[in-house]
Amino acid sequence: MLEFKNQIVHGAIFDMDGTMFDTERLRFQTLQQASRELIGVEFSENYLMQCLGLSARSAEQLAKERYGQDVPYAEIRQRADVLELEHVRNYGVPIKKGLLQVLERLRKAGLKMAVATSSRRAIAEEYLINANVYKFFDVLVCGDEIKQGKPHPEIFISAAEKINLSPAQCLMFEDSENGLRSAYDAGGMTVLFKDIKTPNESMLAEAQYYYETMEDFLIDLNQFVPVLEMPELETAFPQTLNQLTVGIHGFGAIGGGYLAQVLSHWDGYTRPRKIIASTRNPLYQSAVNAFGTYCIRYGQNSFDQRIENMSVIDAYDLEQMQNMYIESSLVAVCVPEEALVSEAEVIAQGLYARYLAYEQQEQPLTLLIILNKIGAKQLVMQQILSRLQQITDEQTAQHIMDQHYFCDTVVNRMVSKLSDQKLYRQLRIKYNMFKQYQLDEDLSVVDLDDSTALNAEQEHQAGLYIEDLRRNFQPSHILQSMDLILFNAETDMPIYVENNSPLLAKMRQMILVDDIANIQLIKNRLWNGVHAMMAWYASLRGHQTIGVAMSDHAIRKFMQQALAQVKHGLCYQIPKHASELERLAQSFTESCAYAYQDPCARVGREPLRKLEHNERVMGSLSTLLKYSLPFDVVLKGAVLGYIYALEQGECEQQELLMHLQIQLRHMALEPQLYETLYDEMSQFINQIIAGKLSLQKFMQLDLQQALS
């Protein structure tokens, strides 16, 4: 049962041609070709328009009135059926945009559903099966099964009876004048869509609801169907594929190990028919395309989640990248900050290609900006606009930018991507399994070398493995159960997204927010800042991964204390987000505990960038000082970052101290506090580097009292 616009609905009855499928134009073409072949005269556009919604019997009578009593209408119709079926079998049924989402929502709302079509059953069934929508309908009533065709109400009355409802309990969907009259006289709740023929006044008078497109009805329907709750980790993806293609610009850890899951859950009713992802890693590209799927591993839950309908393209191939931007309704831009300049050029080329492909008609694209930075959207948009202005004139460039939806995001999941070496070993094991199954061969043991880069021989061999697997793959084959693990991830589910695109209104795994900047601030300081400080400390104590480091009492204690101080500062800075602070702090702690595959080197990279005055660590220190809150643990974290930078050879000691001086000046501190902080921090750095102060003793110092 569905309450739609204050009406209680129990059933939905759909016309087929012109309503669900964009086949009326195709039907016109095939009837004209068939009539030309058989009688040497092409059926006129006017005659065909009058036939819309008529039964075959009524259309034949009209043909005899127009073209003579001896017109072989049955033969013409039969020949048109053959031509139409040939087209459908070769190219598929042209489905109206939004249909699958509508059908899935109506079915999940508990409605009984039927088709009432003037087409013969043989044709109707083939179309419904070809379009993969037969599963939605309980009953099918066809033109060759009734005595009186449309505009007589018999077909809709019969369909309602067969699903044990009265016509008044049913929404009845039509596109033609004759079909609408049939539904109206049957007593149903009439829904009219515009198709070939623009509705006249009498049609609009008989339509209880009128929509230009199926997608317009979907927008209305969305207001009356429930938004599905956030999925659990092991919740299955929707079975039904919608008509959308989505893109992931950057098949890295977040793109492949998180966004692919978000997009696969979609709104919980349907999911995109295809996900296109770009990568510069040929091994990942060929492996995913060969297997057709890949998996994200959640070690904490011993769960491997399979991602399907994924096509991975070469990020170096500009034409492929442009096509991704042309085809997609949504693109998640997952690029690191250091690659932004070069990738902005590619994005600009993609948006310009889309502009040209749609002949300058506005086709809004939703772009999710996945960049671990406060104010990421503005930074990305500035770069893209700058590149567009190099491609076209300023007015066109701005017009292109204005027609799309750019949405900032906050990701709070820890994901790591398998190294090429680990993927190679996995491929080799699976290849051996495949050959053992296929030929029962005695194969060699896999070499477990842990170096990160493949040598030339390994690259060549990996290519051979993939090609052999791809060539021999069959749906019923053993390879179907050989899941290819590409990413290790923690279990946190939601992604925060700026509420800036109508496409995102029902997305199941997204939390839409209006003030995304504050959520970005929380993520930057609470997750990224504490994560970085923890990684620096763990690395300096000799740990390789975050999960293993959590077994070290000193690391765990430091993480908890740093988290508490950062959260305290944020509570003062943005008090209205206390609930998000608590949730993100809890999920961060839980994620760290199981992050056994998350390298400290990855988390702690680029320490000087993370120690800039407005960034994750020094930003928290500045906030704590501003509100006169305890800051000693965060200050220790900053010192650890500088020590780590020196150990990694990121800069010389003098350059590092200059960096510290500049960041403290930018914090606009009182002169005395500035001098004290710089003197103490630089002294600690110098003493630790010189070996005069051990890391352990430094971490035991009561800096709060000393600096007070």
UniProtKB/TrEMBL annotation:
Gene3D superfamilies: HAD superfamily/HAD-like (3.40.50.1000), N-(1-d-carboxylethyl)-l-norvaline Dehydrogenase, domain 2 (1.10.1040.10), NAD(P)-binding Rossmann-like Domain (3.40.50.720), Putative phosphatase, domain 2 (1.10.150.240). CDD domains: HAD_BPGM-like. Residues 522-648 form the Mannitol dehydrogenase C-terminal domain. One of its GO terms (molecular function) is hydrolase activity. Residues 250-441 form the Mannitol dehydrogenase N-terminal domain. It comes from the Bacteria. Keywords: Hydrolase, Oxidoreductase. The keyword Chloroplast does not apply. The keyword Oxidoreductase applies. InterPro entries: 6-PGluconate_DH-like_C_sf, 6PGD_dom2, HAD-like_sf, HAD-SF_hydro_IA, HAD_2, HAD_sf, Mannitol_DH_C, Mannitol_DH_N. This is HAD-IA family hydrolase. It comes from Acinetobacter variabilis. The lineage of its organism: Bacteria, Pseudomonadati, Pseudomonadota, Gammaproteobacteria, Moraxellales.
